[in-house]
């Protein structure tokens, strides 16, 4: 059933988070991705992308990430995007298709959720910030980042989001040659360890 398959996907996520890559891979191998409901299939693809990154296979990570985003686009479900948003993080920045897919996911979430004070919107916007940086559009990246940073106190409660915001802040400051700000936020990031 889809519920038992989704349980395996979530167990694989927990194993991956704890560093048990082999255990996560074994759990995902037990899931028949073709028989899943589309929402679970998208989460399954995202977990495959995480494992591909963790094992040094960026092309496979891009292919799996593309499947996850394409399913989300077809479903156009705010609930599904919410399940994916927190996991579509800086982990994927170096994969070949990241810039395009992060931009597409951001466009989708904006179409589904116009409120800028939601974790869904914020996570997707951080991905779009990285997409803009990766594409060389630092002005756009800075504008999107600053639109989230004004609510940084709200996002402190969401650790992964706060980490990503501090990371992009440090990175943008580095690009701008602002060593003081870059160093300060690098220090904040070290404090998360």
List keywords for this structure.
mainly alpha, 11 helices, 193 residues
Short summary of the structure?
By secondary structure, the chain is mainly α. Helices cover 76% and strands 0% of the residues.
- DSSP strand (E) fraction? under 5%
Largest sheet, if any? Answer: none
Low-confidence stretches: none
Q: What structural class results from the helix and strand content?
A: mainly alpha
Helix fraction by DSSP (H/I, runs of at least 4): over 70%
Number of strands: 0
Rg: 17 Å
Give the overall shape: globular
Topology:
Elements: H1 2-17, H2 21-29, H3 38-54, H4 58-75, H5 78-85, H6 98-112, H7 119-134, H8 138-149, H9 152-155, H10 159-176, H11 179-191
Helix pairs in contact: 1-2, 1-3, 2-3, 3-4, 4-6, 5-7, 6-7, 7-8, 7-10, 8-10, 10-11
Folded structure, characterized:
With 193 residues, the chain is mostly helical. The protein is built from 11 helices and no strands. It has helices at 2-17, 21-29, 38-54, 58-75, 78-85, 98-112, 119-134, 138-149, 152-155, 159-176, 179-191. The protein is globular. The N and C termini lie far apart (38 Å).
């Amino acid at each position: 059933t889809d519920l038992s398959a989704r349980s395996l996907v979530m167990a694989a996520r927990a194993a991956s988070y704890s560093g048990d890559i082999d255990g996560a891979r074994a759990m995902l191998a037990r899931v028949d991705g073709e028989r899943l409901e589309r929402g679970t299939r998208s989460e399954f693809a995202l977990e495959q992308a995480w494992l591909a990154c963790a094992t040094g296979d960026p092309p496979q990570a891009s292919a799996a990430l593309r499947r996850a985003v394409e399913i989300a686009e077809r479903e156009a479900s705010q609930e599904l995007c919410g399940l994916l948003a927190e996991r579509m993080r800086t982990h994927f920045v170096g994969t070949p298709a990241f810039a395009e897919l992060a931009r597409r996911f951001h466009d989708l979430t904006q179409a589904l959720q116009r409120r800028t004070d939601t974790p869904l919107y914020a996570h997707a916007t951080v991905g779009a910030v990285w997409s803009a940086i990766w594409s060389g559009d630092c002005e756009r990246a800075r504008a999107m980042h600053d639109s989230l940073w004004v609510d940084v106190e709200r996002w402190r409660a969401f650790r992964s989001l706060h980490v990503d915001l501090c990371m992009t802040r440090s990175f943008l400051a580095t690009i701008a040659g602002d060593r003081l700000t870059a160093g300060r936020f690098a220090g904040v990031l070290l404090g998360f360890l």
